[in-house]
Design goal:
The protein is mostly helical. The chain folds into 2 domains: 2-42; 66-285, Orthogonal Bundle (MetI-like fold), CATH 1.10.3720.10. Helices cover 74% and strands 0% of the residues. The protein is built from 14 helices and no strands. The protein has helices spanning 2-42, 46-50, 64-72, 75-106, 112-122, 127-140, 147-151, 158-168, 173-181, 186-197, 199-214, 218-224, 233-237, 250-285. α1 packs antiparallel against α14 (250-285), α4 packs across α8 and α11 (199-214) runs antiparallel to α14. The protein is globular and about 70 Å long. It starts with a helix and ends with a helix. Keywords: Cell membrane, Membrane, Transmembrane, Transmembrane helix, Transport. It is a multi-pass membrane protein. Pfam families: BPD_transp_1 (PF00528). It is found in: Cell membrane.
Length: 286
């Protein structure tokens, strides 16, 4: 009876694993399908784009749509603008989040809990609430219609400070005290001792920040005020929508979207190991 029970138990476990694996595969396919469809559609000819029922895989892949995109929008300029906005903003968020997170995690000062609670409270404010006040501040210092005006208000982030504070809290105090005894400055401790200890969290925050600000639309559109030379790729792509009145131009729109998604995708490929490590570390701490 015990052997029979053991075999039934193993079969049940294998069945459970198979079910979980199947569900994970279905979720992965559903998540990846829009991206795959976008790339395949960008390679279709106009005739294949108009065909009903739709053609799943192009019979004669063509890069014609990618050539036409550059004739509608300045792809290189727009990509460079997006790269500047996302890169500088991400760097600023990493520095300010690490410094503030370190202070909240390892310093003891009056009002620390209250200040941190107010900071967390700002995370629940919809971005549209702060849009007009921020716009007026940027205008008052003369940064309208400039990339600096887009970047400056986003150099600090409440979520980044919260994330860094949670991870830095796990760094042993004895390690920091030993560095202080050896004469290390607070900045040296932060960037040479604390930062390597929370590298997965830094990588995850960098990925979140870069993707968010690469895809940001409303704030750049509000600040730049028609300065097309400073438009990031996401705003420039909106010009392609006028070309999507018929299926014949679907490939053009999909080609532009494919170009826009490449940098964040490449960044994720490089940082995915750290991203997964940060999730595992959070689960273990929880």
């Amino acid at each position: 009876m015990s052997n029979l029970g053991g075999r039934l138990s193993r079969r049940g476990l294998m069945g459970h694993k198979a079910l979980v694996g199947t569900l994970m595969l279905l979720v992965a396919v559903a998540s990846a399908f829009p991206l795959i469809w976008m790339v395949l559609s960008s390679l279709k000819t106009p005739a294949e784009s108009m065909q009903i029922p739709p053609v799943w895989i192009p019979r004669t892949p063509s890069l014609e749509a990618y050539e036409k995109v550059s004739g509608v929008i300045n792809v290189s300029r727009s990509m460079w603008n997006s790269l500047l906005i996302a890169s500088i903003t991400t760097a600023g968020i990493l520095v300010t989040s690490m410094m503030a997170g370190y202070a909240f995690a390892k310093y003891r000062f009056r009002g620390r809990t209250l200040v941190f609670s107010v900071l967390i409270g700002t995370m629940f404010l919809p971005p549209i609430v702060t849009l007009i006040p921020l716009y007026r501040v940027i205008g008052s210092i003369g940064l309208n219609a400039s990339l600096a005006g887009v970047i400056l208000p986003n150099l600090a982030n409440a979520f980044g400070i919260f994330l860094m504070r949670q991870f830095i809290s796990g760094v042993p105090d004895d390690l920091i005290d030993a560095a202080r005894v050896d004469g290390a400055s607070e900045l040296l401790i932060l960037f040479k001792i604390v930062a390597p200890s929370v590298a997965p969290a830094i990588a995850a925050l960098a990925l979140f920040a870069f993707v968010y600000h690469w895809n940001s639309y409303l704030w750049p559109l509000t600040v730049l005020q028609g300065n097309a030379n400073a438009y990031p790729i996401v705003i420039s792509l909106s010009r392609l929508l006028s070309y999507n009145r018929g299926a014949i131009n679907t490939g053009l729109v999909m080609a532009g979207a494919t170009l826009a998604v490449l940098p964040p995708l490449v960044l994720f490929v490089f940082l995915q190991r750290f991203f997964v490590d940060s999730i595992v570390s959070s689960a273990v701490k929880g």
